[in-house]
Amino acid sequence: MSKKNYILALDQGTSSSRTIVFDTNFRICASYQLETRQFFPSDGWVEQDAEEIFARQMETAEVAIKKAEIRIDDIVGIGITNQRESFVLWDKTNGKPVYHAIIWQDKRTAHICERMQQQEISRIIRRKTGLVSDPYFSATKLRWLFENQPELLVRARNGELLFGTIDSWLIWKLSGGAYHVTDVSNASRTMLFNIQNLQWDAELLEYFNVPKQILPKIVDSAGELAFTDSNLFFGKQIPISGIAGDQQAALFGQACYQTGMVKNTYGTGCFMLMNVGSTCPAIREDGLLRTIAWRIGNDLTYALEGSVFFAGATIQWMRDQLKIINSAVESEVLAKSVKDTSGVYFVPAFAGLGTPYWDADARALIVGMTQATNSAHIVRAGLESLAYQTRDVLDLMQASAGISLGTLRVDGGASANNFLMQFQADILGKYVSRPELVETTALGAAFLAGIGVGITDMDSIQQLWVEGQCFKPQMSETERQKKYEGWKRAVERSRGWYDS
Q1: CA distance 299 to 499
Q2: How far apart are CA 116 and CA 473, in angstroms?
Q3: How far apart are CA 81 and CA 127, in angstroms?
Q4: Do residues 158 and 212 touch, judged by C-beta distance below 8 A?
């Protein structure tokens, strides 16, 4: 029997870890997913157990491989995509984390960022990294950790510790400590990386008090970037041949390879990226981030990005905390059971607001309720909030790039909700195109891994993208603007609520 080749995509997200097995035509052979716990030790703090992240990721890989009924020898490459900005600090000798992974949603450094915004360092960060001074990114939280546990800074300076975003952590563990690397897309989210000269920035390292020796080596997004330890886990040396932060991976998986193409991913957060080509876009104070999409060999691609912190996590909150739905699927049924929200707006600023507001002191609210308001109205308002936040970002992105987008490509778990996608098309006044395979984050990691081992290329990948369904706007312009103006009023009431 002839040998078949497969790609393993490890998709480590904020709320879950998943592994998908793809064949060389990038069809899904099997997948398995486990939820990842979060810890909230103080108001605004969000942490995860890094050891649990790795253990659950490996469990999903083991089960997915068994479900696919393939041999380890048939796996020719591994692609890794991960929740960005979240980071781990671990002992270089024994591989044990010295603190919980601090997650991108964590707001413990909001007060630090507020001070930074009034100083010259904020403009330096913007110019060098393309980012804004917000606790969303890794650097201020790493500085906080060193300031609050100074013994860790001493150990870091002595070369005893290593820092990495989640991709680095997974690779270090998979390789038995042989590789401490990260790709350019993940490095660009730390607030320590200069996106113009593509190096860890000495000035920013000094400001945030980060010893350079703890940082990973920067590598491409595709290629033979690292190898698994043949004595661990898979029992074979397999190339880790694709790495990208989850949103850049989704852009790649959506085959957005031409300048001006845009995708929006509805995951835990909601993230819109526009391919802006090989030249770093002009840095402006417009609320959008400038980031690196990927680098393959000598080809570097940048992106504009808008970030919404709570999207699918809003649905999860309504399920787990409010307990008005039993599942994400039920949210669509309940939303359709009422003709509208009856004037209710839900601003899910649980972790502040991202683009275009960048208000870490905003807090969630539900407004417009009367005695007639019921759970269906709140659920519908919760779903509509994803679409309103997306419009906030797209309006800004179109203005900044000087284009008028015709079609928005969408993906991620919540994009399977037909009610939400139709409302999205209505509130944007744009076509919304959902591919046949909505899990494009893992697909993007698999594409990069395939390129890395030479079994595909970007021209071939473009032919694989297939539209599953297109949602066309049906709402009148008058109604669209009225609803959106109500949303903007609700947002203003949520802003500046928490005094950090």
Answers
A1: 45
A2: 42
A3: 27
A4: no
Count of CB atoms within 10 A of residue 423's CB?
A: 24
CA–CA distance, 125 with 397 (Å, rounded to integer): 21
DSSP state of 126: H
Strand-strand pairing, 181-183 and 217-219: parallel
pLDDT at 103 over 50: yes
Sequence letter at residue 175 = S
Evaluate if residue 2 carries a pLDDT over 50. Answer: no
Question: Structure pTM?
Answer: 0.86
Residue 153: both structure tokens together: 């800074």
Q: Any idea of the CA torsion for 165, 167, 169, 171, to the nearest 10 degrees?
A: -150
| Cis peptide upstream of residue 356 (ω within 30 degrees of 0) | yes
Contact 352, 360 (CB under 8 A): yes
DSSP, collapsed to helix, strand or coil, labels residue 308 as: strand
Question: 286-307, pLDDT tens digit by residue?
Answer: 788 999 999 999 899 999 999 8
CATH numbers and ranges of domains, the chain: 6-247 (3.30.420.40)
DSSP string, 443-497: HHHHHHHHHHTTS--HHHHHTT--EEEEE---S-HHHHHHHHHHHHHHHHHHTT-
